[in-house]
Amino acid sequence: MTVASSPPSRLPVRDIEGTQPKPRIREKRERDGGGRGDGALAALFIAPAMLGFLVFLLWPTLRGIYLSFTRFNLLTPAEWVGLDNYVRMVKDPIFWDSLTVTVEYVFINIGVQTVSALAIAVLLQRLTQSAILRGIVLTPYLMSNVVAGIVWLWMLDTQLGIGNEIIAGLGFDRIPFLADETWAIPTIALINVWRHVGYTALLLFAGLQAIPSDMYEAAKVDGASEWRMFWRITMPLLRPVLAVVLIMTVIGSFQVFDTVAVTTAGGPANATNVLQYYIYGAAFGRFQFGYASAMSVALLVVLSAITFVQYRLTRAGQTDLG
Amino acid sequence: MRIRTRTVVALTGVLALSLVTGCAQGGAAGAGSNTVTYWLWDANQMPAYQACAKGFEKQNPGLKVKITQMGWADYWTKLTASFIAGTEPDVFTDHIQKFGQFADLNVLEPLDDLDIDDSAYQPGLAANWTGQDGHRYGAPKDWDTVALMYNKKMVKEAGLSAEELNGLSWNTKDGGTFEKTIAHLTVDKNGKRGDEEGFDKNNVKVYGLATGGAGDSDGQTTWSPFTGSAGWKYTDKARWGSKYQYDSKTFQSVVDWYFGLAKKGYLAPFTDYTDGANPANAQVASGRAATSFDGAWMISTYYDTKGLDVGTAPTPTGPTGKRATMMNGLADSITKNAPNKAGAKKWVQYLASNECQKTVGSYGIVFPATPDGTEAAVAAYKKKGIDVSAFTEPVTDKKDSTTFSFPITDYAADVYSLVRPAMQDVYANGAPVSDLTKTNDQVNFILGQ
Q1: So where does this one cross the membrane (chain B) (predicted)?
Q2: B7–A270 C-beta distance less than 8 A
Q3: Considering only alpha carbons, which residue of chain A is nearest residue B1?
Q4: Do the Cβ atoms of B420 and A267 come within 8 Å?
Q5: Complex ipTM, two decimals?
Q6: At residue A210, what are phi and psi to the nearest 5 degrees?
């Protein structure tokens, strides 16, 4: 018995200590291909996306950076000019003007959009579970920017637009929404808020769904008001999602183009000449692809810096949901 | 495992190949060696050119013409893209504004061997298409001028006659009979006319003159009939000038007077109509404006507007004692890398021939470049009950009228992008016209590079 009983009593001990037998088997399986098989399969799944990334993102970005140091009109070979395009950019008053106009647009667009989207998302979560309502909220997002721009352009026309007919019918002065330099940028910003707010609201709504309902129940038991629950529960726990949404919308806003192109074409008198539109004009209107690339690189740098700062400030990678 | 890795590589390769070949297929689609591809932007002209193509195919058995039409804005973007991708058409309708840039980019085929005779076309049309290198790059196609379109009913109600509108004159001091007329045609909310006591310029119901925007760098249908009849020229030379003259006192005083009409309430202000959304013809059609300056390419649009009885009058006589209008002509150009260059040359020769131009003229939508073609168009318009003499007289009557061309220089796109906002600043924001001197310096700096 003693002989027979001793080995079994030692086996579990060795097992618990994690010594030889089992790890050796695991190692062997990995070496024989179990893990490598997964790796190859993963590579297979990643390959199309990686190819797309290389062809449509990395290569154009690197090529754009290279072109920013050249004079290039598309049809003749690029000519290396060093920092000339960047020097020109720094001295170009229209570039700085475009940047200012863009920042103005971003502030109005993001400010109004985020607050409205948050309000819609909270209302959707706290008041209704209706999928139809969620669908309705998303409707403007289904329309293309160009179509939305043209429709709003007609509706807001000073003399012939239905919007101004209503304003005049109510006894107010007509407002040159897109033809006056004071109104043009806020109007374009609000048109884009109208189109995107539903989508942003649904992203935030998804974030809200991740907050456990028992927190609200507990708060209610303690007698907290909706207002208090919003500030003490919703906002802190939504922060990571809100941060990501903000980063995405800021990047998107800086790249506003199509609405401007169809409504004001940068006018009146450059009042809506946002950076992206100016870049487009330099490249496809004036065939100055080198200079346009330099401005695009500047935009890339600005956006990277803003994204980094936003990410750090909003602690986007951390959650308060313990 | 090796098989799997190989599969990954193969699949990736197939995907990459499909991307590459997919692009290539897209580019080569639709053309064959016996086909001549031809692009134009005006949908109204499509049937006329299809008729021309039929005549051409009959004369050239084995050759086919494939016509593609796309809107003005898409047209130039797509054309640029096609030059880069190598999918350009054999022949395309060219515009004088774009010509300089295309010539500079070296994407046009010289047409010297087509032996185009300048005297076979309306004066000035053929010569405009000669590059700085002395080669011809466009075969004359058609032409247009600008005239005053007016709502006959409103003019009658104002007690004015067609003769009066045909004999208008202007000056920068008191605006002449032109300013008096548009003032009289302007009506405020209370029914008071612009030249009556108590007229409310801030509440205008019908403007005497529709706005066509700030006119960009050429003012074709806005200020150019006035700057032209004041004797001003865009550049120091008729073609390929090295200096623009937006700093001229004459130019600036005319522009000041012209946009000043808006401050008086006779011309619709810039802010009234979003640039491009509601062009001059829409303002006249909706009854918000009594008159407008517009080009010959818009004749059918005005006359086809339901409920609108339109009249036309020539541009008013200016300080030089002459009427003036821009006379712009389009041309057909062949691309340097045209897949079917031999066929393209035959097609362009046919397009520029009296035969095709008479066919196009018979559709009554545009004035072809040859005198016979023009005559055919005038007859076709007449058949439709449209009198186009306000557009044709400036070309035939050299005593009382003068015509001028779009400015033809290098860097036309740069000039446009600098002058357009500057003119808008004057019109929309009331910036002083003297600011245009600074813009002119910037323009000439670019031209001098």
Answers
A1: none
A2: no
A3: A37
A4: yes
A5: 0.82
A6: -80, -10
